[in-house]
Amino acid sequence: MEDEQSRAKQAFPDLSDEEVYGFHCRFLVRVANDILSLQSRKFVIDDNNRDILRFLLLYFNECPLAEEVFPGRGYKLHKNLILMGAVGVGKTLLMQIFSEYLRRVGNPRYFQCVSVTQVVNHYKLHNNMDLYTYNEEDLRGFQINPYHICLNDIGMDNAPFYGVDTLSVMNDFLHARNELWSNLAISDRRFTYLTTNLNVKQLGDTFKRKDAFGRTVDRFKTFNVIDCPGESRR
Predict the structure, then answer these.
(1) Which of 59, 120, 198, 219 could form a disulfide with 66 if both were Cys (CB 3.0 to 4.6 A apart)?
(2) Burial 75-111 (b: 16+ CB within 10 A, else e)
(3) What CATH number does residue 134 fall under?
């Protein structure tokens, strides 16, 4: 286990070094502006997102300093992630930026961004969510091969989608991803990231409609819940 943890740490830059941290900050902004270039606008860092950006940069690079960015909130490196906030505050954009940043630096925490509609479409076509949960169709050495994933805008599209109950599909998705998160070894863990326009109470009330026992809501305890304040940036 110690050898495994040592190898895992070597895959990440040491962001406790101010010079290394500064480099990654600048590179992150460059990635953000590359993404926004098609919209002819610049990425803006302000009081609403500055600390969130610092936390996410440290978190995705598994730097323990991440747990000190928001004292008293209990954020932990080993937890999954939910970004909550009003429409347009930049939740999805932040995750797209970090996805591209992690890909470019070759970070093992690289994740793919998908929408609720994509997952439901896949379920409708294949009658399963294997691609977004266990990924058993891409087995390696008889081991399931899931990947880190960010699911955007959960809890909003709850009406039947072409005959498929979206909320039930999301419940099954979260159940399966929680199994992956909690049961695998540290180096093999697969993280789940979520964005939503709902607050904690609204999200809980929404998922209780299909889960009378509250199991899905209880699994939200395995997430760092990040509030994204401010007005729309669009």
Answers:
(1) 59
(2) beeebbbbbbbeeebbbbbbbbbbbbbbeebebebbb
(3) 3.40.50.300
Residue 162, pLDDT score: 62
Q: How many domains does the chain have?
A: 1
Query: Within a domain: residue 28?
Result: yes
Bridge partners of residue 149, in order along the sequence:
112, 192
Whether this model's pTM surpasses 0.85 = yes
Q: Reply yes or no on whether the pLDDT at 9 is more than 80.
A: no
Give dist(CA 154, CA 84) in Å, integer.
10
| DSSP one-letter code for 70 | S
**Token couple for 79:** 């937890």
Region 34-62: mean pLDDT is: 94
Residues 149, 193: contact at Cβ < 8 Å?
yes
Structure tokens at 124: 């409708």
